[in-house]
Amino acid sequence: xxxxxxQPRSPAPEARAARQWLGLALGxxxxxxxxxxxxxxxxxxxxxxxxTDPLFFxxxxxxxxxxxxxxxxxxxxxGLLALLPGRRPMGTPARLSxxxxxxxxxxxxxxxxxxxxxxxxxNYIPTIDHPVFRLxxxxxxxxxxxxxxxxxxxxxxGAREAVFPMPDSARAGLYAVAVxxxxxxxxxxxxxxxxxxxxxxxVQHELLVWGGGHVLQLVCVIAMVTxxxxxxxxxxxxxxxxxxxxxxxxAALLLPWSFSLALALQGPSTAxxxxxxxxxxxxxxxPVVSIFLILCGSALTRAWREGRIGRRELADxxxxxxxxxxxxTLLGFGLGAAIRGSNTMVPAHYHASVGGVTVAFMAxxxxxxxxxxxxxxxxxxxxxAAWQPALYGTGMxxxxxxFALAGAxxxxxxxYGAEQATRGLAETIGLGMMGIGGLVAVAGGVVFLIVxxxxxxxxxxxxxxxxxxxxxxxxxxxxxx
Length: 481
Prior knowledge:
Layout: H1 13-42, H2 56-82, H3 92-112, E1 118-120, E2 127-129, H4 131-148, H5 168-193, H6 201-236, H7 243-254, H8 260-265, H9 271-283, H10 286-305, H11 311-314, H12 317-337, H13 345-368, H14 379-408, H15 425-470
Antiparallel strand pairs: 1-2
Helix pairs in contact: 1-2, 1-3, 2-3, 2-4, 3-4, 5-6, 5-7, 6-9, 6-10, 6-12, 6-13, 7-10, 12-13, 12-14, 13-14, 14-15
């Protein structure tokens, strides 16, 4: 007999589920780029002559938004929720939930290419007025919900050992994410039941997603704050916010939004529904998030004064991503307060806000790689990972600032090309800033995908070689060597 070969230990179901959800999140980011590229190439000669469907570009835009914002954000969130320690191992429905979400993404892709299908460019969740696309959206949402509606997370009894170490403050944040997701789902259901029949599709869909879409923004904000806590806890060695303090703050963040169901019950055609959710967005987020920012910033300052971090550590992507995300979040709050009508100040506000969430999730992806047995080994890629959050954050800040400058001088939103009819130097400068910032942010996104893609590919290749060799390959292999 030859040398005994030890078998690799199978990862916990929670770790496998988290890796699958994260893989889906990265995959949909690539697909979102494909749809964005289709819009650009489809307008270029000589390719433009092959695009005969006048709705082609809007359908690509709808698919891009659903993938780049919806599927990317909530796949990442589902991956985080899989890491919560429970009383028992993850159940079968939760383990298979990512398959349901993948089926939804497949239908979204299929529905986006249906000829003459009508795109509805609604706020928050645009859609395509076709059963295949809508079913895809519903299946993806169901997959995310099933991923955490699992008996293992019910209170009572002691929790099993966590597959990923996290402070109590981050656990409180993830439970708050789960509550907010459930609240969003119930808001959608109640709103759908209270819809006035016979409305035009555009009006009906806008009313349907207005309330639930606002609650989904709450989900993203709580998840972003939770990632801040994970990043800084890893970089500083302890949580910047105590467990009990975090529980109180997350509860305070959720409390105003508990009125969401009452607003939905009023009916989506009422002024209370429209205005109520607007007020929740205006006043229900920034006070508590600002407190989290102050506490996290104070922890960083204290670590600097005590000599635990220096200039070298400030370049750590865990810290630079928090700084970039926090700055974009504050910029989003400020631009939101400056909105006075339907101009480009509106997209300036939400691009800053979305950028804050995105850069945090990107850095959170780097943080999770070791859990999946992945690593960034090449020195060049490690350096790129160090400055990627700052690159992306700078680009998004410039993008939002350019939009804001143009909007401050009256530039209307949702107009393109010659319709923009720039009337002054400030608007022209603003749109130029927006374009440059967009290119920088895209470069940051490409760097992120290259770094993560390389780590994922090398890790997958290594696992494949291990499986071949452990199952009878010609060379002996000691696992973990």
